[in-house]
Amino acid sequence: MGWAAFFGIWAFVSAVILDEFTLPGPLKVWNEILEIVRGGSWADDFLISISKTFMGFMIALIVGVPVGYMMGRAGYWKAFFHDGVVGAGSIPGIVYAIIALVIFGIGFQGPILAVGLISMPFIALNVAEGLEGVDRDLLSMSTAFGRSDRQALRHILIPSIMPFAFAGVRLSFAIAWKVEALTEVFGSSNGVGFQIRFAFQGFSIAGVLAWTLMFIALLLLIERGLAIVERWLFRWRTWEQAA
Amino acid sequence: MSAATMSRQPGFANSSIGRALRSSWGARVTSYFAFVVAWQIVGASFFRVPTPWETLDFIWREVSGGDHGGVRPGQFWEHFSATVPRFAIGISVAFVIGVVVGLLIGSFSFVRALLSDVLLVFLALPAIIWAFLTVMWFGLGWEAPVYTVILSAAPFVAVNVAQGVRAVSPELRRMSDAFGVPRNRRIRSMLLPAITGYLFTGLRFAVIIGWNAVLLAEWFGAVDGVGWRARLWYDAARYKGFVGWAIIFIVFIFLLDGLVLSPLQRRAFRWRASPSSDLKAEVGAVDTESFTNTAIGL
């Protein structure tokens, strides 16, 4: 019913309140989407954008997990990273796009950097939070039985951190996907953001809406997908949640 | 060697400077210093990136009205005073609309069923889309920035208010039904305390999202304002102006958040026995469940 309401309201606003030119109705945008799909290159654009996003996440994980680890383990590092990690949440997305543009110009690295910068604090915060919940008894037991620090890291700390790191990725996905597209709008020669910009410059309202709808549909699909993968990957943790 | 003999030993680590550096205050100062050093290194290795000093110099010229190498005088206040009213009007309207829609969604399950997917799409729409659409609708001028702020910020207020309404405990509601508590007393003693915190979280979201929205809309569809000014420097390929403005954007939102919004939010929560002090509560933005869950599970 919700989706029927969405398209109903859209069709009503387009036909009655505004006009077909100002706000093209669902049918017109659907035809536009069909046109884009028939054009064939849409899959490439989405693939490019998605792979940039996931490369950005890899960088965010590589940097964010150690930062979160340090924040969770030592008061000094918690204070050191506090302002940066907490402040990053309120920095406007346009600033990330500017940073990416200034450093890399119109290259494929720009969006990767923007995604990395925006999702890193989420991952670090989650990991720091998760570490505080690590079973202290398990750690002291492993010391008592003469396990090395490396073994403790491999068998206790990393398994406890990973679910939180993954949750950080999932939580920041929506915002990262938006910033990725924004960076492509500002400077790129391919990807979804570039196509939206291209439609804008051609003054095609239907084109902008068509690309946007596809963009949102993919956002929601991947979000759900990540939630499912997360539940599957960390299904061994269910006893913990049940307790 | 015991701790007592350690502390008697002379040495840098135990001097007062060493202790100050290891305090949490010292850690923060060190982090800012490290940031500037890192920026300096990046500035030296990428030719387009200006150094911290160049950027600071630019910001000073722009704010004080000094000239930029004889070309254009600094025009900070002119553009800042064009942007702030757009931002303020947009946020106010977005807040009112968001509160009304949020109250409706939270109170009536019919409205919730009707609007939850609409809201989901609005939440997922990036501000840049609204900027493009409003520029195509209204052309260049003040309308595009104002409407972009309203359209991108209002959904976040609505979601938070709706969650606040639904956070009113059903027991309290049923009890006040049973005892025939009058409507205005219910609003004052039951609904308001429950939603105050959510209102401020919503406002904070609106301000952060609205600031980004006004900058984007001015970038693509205005003839003055701070977003337009930043674009001017970008188009002129003067990257220190571009980066200088990015720094101004950050400083503005940090000041607004730190000096106005966070104290307000703390005030709204002062009746609570123990304010939560953990890292995540401070960020707020991270403290939401998964994106779709937030929107669907209104």
Outline the structure in words:
The complex is a heterodimer of chains A (243) and B (298). Helices cover 83% and strands 0% of the residues of chain A. Chain A is an all-alpha fold. Chain A has a single domain, classed as MetI-like (MetI-like fold), CATH 1.10.3720.10. The longest helix of chain A is centred in the last third of the chain and has 38 residues. The two termini of chain A are 36 Å apart. In chain A, 43% of the residues are buried. By secondary structure, chain B is mostly helical. Chain B has two domains: 49 residues, no CATH class; 224 residues, MetI-like (MetI-like fold, Orthogonal Bundle). Chain B has 14 helices and two strands. Chain B has a two-stranded antiparallel ribbon. In chain B, helix 10 packs antiparallel against helix 12 and helix 11 runs antiparallel to helix 12. The termini of chain B are far apart. At the A-B interface, helix 1, helix 4, helix 5, helix 6 and helix 8 of A face helix 3, helix 6, helix 7, helix 10 and helix 11 of B.
